Amino acid sequence: MGRPSIMNEDQYEALRDQGYSKEKAARIANSDNSGKKGGKASKYEERTKEELYEQAKEIGIEGRSKMDKEELIQALRNN
């Protein structure tokens, strides 16, 4: 059984490599802005600390609860 059509295949594969589930990766890769600027989401600096924390939690960054916004951005970029 094949998977549903993916609008941004490169982004889908990158998200899967980052540990996203097939469903979440497909949802993001098929979002309205998936083709813009390589399918990247909003810049880290434009996100709230809570949004950054949640992303850090999803990918398993250690020590995230003690990080400020700038440290979360740095950790996400270097993961």
From TrEMBL:
Recorded superkingdom: Bacteria
Pfam family, one: DUF7218
Domain called Rho termination factor-like N-terminal: residue spans: 48-76
UniProt feature coiled coil, ranges: none
InterPro entries: DUF7218, Rho-like_N, Rho_N_sf
GO terms, biological process: DNA-templated transcription termination
Region (Disordered): 17-46
SUPFAM superfamilies listed in its UniProt record: Rho N-terminal domain-like
Record field: compositional bias (Basic and acidic residues): 17-26
Protein name from the UniProt record: Rho termination factor
